[in-house]
Specification:
Strand content of chain A: under 5%
Oligomer: homotetramer
Number of helices of chain A: 9
CATH architecture of one domain in chain A: Orthogonal Bundle
CATH class of one domain in chain A: Mainly Alpha
Radius of gyration of chain A: 18 Å
Largest sheet of chain A: none
Number of strands of chain A: 0
Order of helices and strands of chain A: HHHHHHHHH
Largest interface: C-D, 50 and 51 residues
Shape of chain A: elongated
Structural class of chain A: mainly alpha
Helix content of chain A: over 70%
Distance between the termini of chain A: 48 Å
DNA sequence: GATGAATGAGTATTCATTCAT
DNA sequence: CATGAATGAATACTCATTCAT
């Protein structure tokens, strides 16, 4: 039932893991607790389903990004806006899903997703910074991705998802980082 | 009891909110459940205490940063290293505390902390980017802070806190952003 | 669940507040502890429910009293017998409820009840002693009510609820007091 | 320690059995919990001591009553006033002690006391009603005693211990009952 | 003696899950 | 299929009592 997914996402987003309980989710979804278990074998299965759906939303947003033609600054703005809008429905969801909730089945729940997620950033680095898809640029992609995520999640937490100054600064951060990578042949520091 | 704080931090870091339960914390701390409640009125009070302690640690790390003399790149490296080491003891703690756990008392649990936290970044922007401490640079500080946090939290989650490539990329990100701010007189977009 | 109410009343009556505990009540009622909390938000809510039910029983007994026709001595006997039978099921209950148990919600748990309770005695005084319903007769009603209650509670405590001598003496007490009021125009002493 | 007795009596009177807990009593008494257990083997021993002391106070009040000379109405007034003053210090105590609290040792905790207590009433009946000390008058004594107690306990509960109308009505009740006994050769009803 | 930190059995309460209807 | 009352293991928290200092 889609209502259950939606209710679960909302509770998770608003009350976090601590407030997430099957009876409450079922009630908010307007179905009986029995129906809940008709569709989901257990609580964690719902978490997994919510995660999958949300991560698909995020990927969808990134996949639609204009990689081919545009100027770097247009790409940066498009990236930020896409992610902001992907977090609009349930601002708190992403961080709870990635950071907190245990997973039902998969060893690494975010793994498949993360691979593609990082991959998109890596491709952007390839295109806008003219770098090969080596280990180094994968680390760069991860850092950029995590930085953008961090800003968006915290903006969501503070209710500043639509704040113009934040958006501008984040776009600047992305743009600057990518353009700098083009120039740099930095030497990875030692661990 | 400090042992309780330490045990609580460890469990929170390793098992998240879902695995955090007073009996387990007491057992890991090596005290009886009765002693737990001698020192903390309830479960949330321990969370608050852990949060306070951890945030103090983070602030301490930032306060010790060399703001006066050094070159921007030295500052960036010092910043990243300080935060990495502040997260060394309980890598998962910060994100659980900020992102997931409910708060007992304070209206905004991270508020006082966050004000100083952002303030330090704002000061760095003032020094290294030559910007006044206006609203705009406060947004910049917030974005930079959240970006750095995001990278570090995710690195902690993946066990990559001591990964050299990540460190190098993050330092580059900080350095680039700060040096770009110096050049830019950007117009904050409207919300 | 009515079984829970009944079990609670029985335990309260037999073991007092000290022996009253949700798990035991649930077990005696033949339901799981979970079901207990399905019907009562907490322990005190059950107390309140038991109190309400018991006080209703008492009121019911008094409401049915023959006020119109009969001779004073018939009324006194009917009053005593009604109250004795209202205390028959759970002899210790009333005193525990009034004297010992804390209340969940209402400011004065017995208040609404007490008002009607005293009111019935006041009406009897009006009828059988020919007195107006002023402050003075309200005090008389209170005293008579408390005296009768005291005798019945203590008889219940000693297992003498059906003792004939006690019954006769109590009836005499009521009858004597009411008939004396008819004759007296006493001056209430100063506080 | 007398302070412990006093503190225990106060808590019992004000909060009932539900609020009576050794740590709180010790704190109110200004001694450590350790000292508490120096003087009392356990919680119930304190209850017993409090009960003994209180019942002694009540007996003392009754023993001082003027049985020999005075008119019935003077005796009734003296009786009421003595009991009122015996309940002045801890108005709620008596009912909690008699009605609710379990006892440590004695089979019937109030027994020895009650025997003398009732005995005094029986003697008064003998004197003022000219009745022999048979079973019948023992029942009368019990009823009168319980009636008076009931009025005083409930007055204490409502904070009306010094209310003049209550006092007058209670005195009237006692006086009327005793004088009626003198006239009556009633036949005890069947059990 | 006096102290009060520590103990842990006991009690209140929650919530994932089942199953008879 | 849908329902929601019932279940009980798990968890939060209390308080009588001990004992090392």
């Amino acid at each position: 039932m889609d209502a259950i997914l939606e209710a679960g996402a909302r509770i998770l987003s608003e009350s976090g893991w601590a407030g997430f309980n099957t009876n409450v989710v079922a009630k908010l979804a307007g179905v009986s607790i029995g129906s809940f278990y008709q569709y989901f074998p257990d609580k964690l299965a719902l978490i997994d389903a919510i995660r999958d759906r949300h991560l698909q939303d995020c990927l969808m947003a990134l996949r639609g990004l204009p990689m081919d033609a545009p100027r770097l600054e247009d790409f940066a703005a498009a990236l930020v806006d896409a992610l902001v809008s992907a977090h609009g429905r349930h601002p708190g969801l992403h961080r709870v899903l990635l950071d907190e909730t245990p997973s039902g089945g998969h060893l690494d729940p975010a793994s498949a997703f993360e691979t593609e997620y990082i991959g998109i950033y890596a491709r952007a680095i390839g295109i806008f910074a003219g770098r090969a898809l080596d280990e180094k640029s994968r680390a760069d992609a991860m850092v950029l991705s995590d930085a953008v995520d961090g800003v968006i999640h915290n903006a969501a937490r503070r209710g500043q998802l639509s704040d113009g100054s934040i958006r501008a600064a984040l776009i600047l951060l992305v743009e600057t980082f990518l353009s700098r990578l083009r120039l740099t042949d930095y030497k990875g520091a030692s661990a």
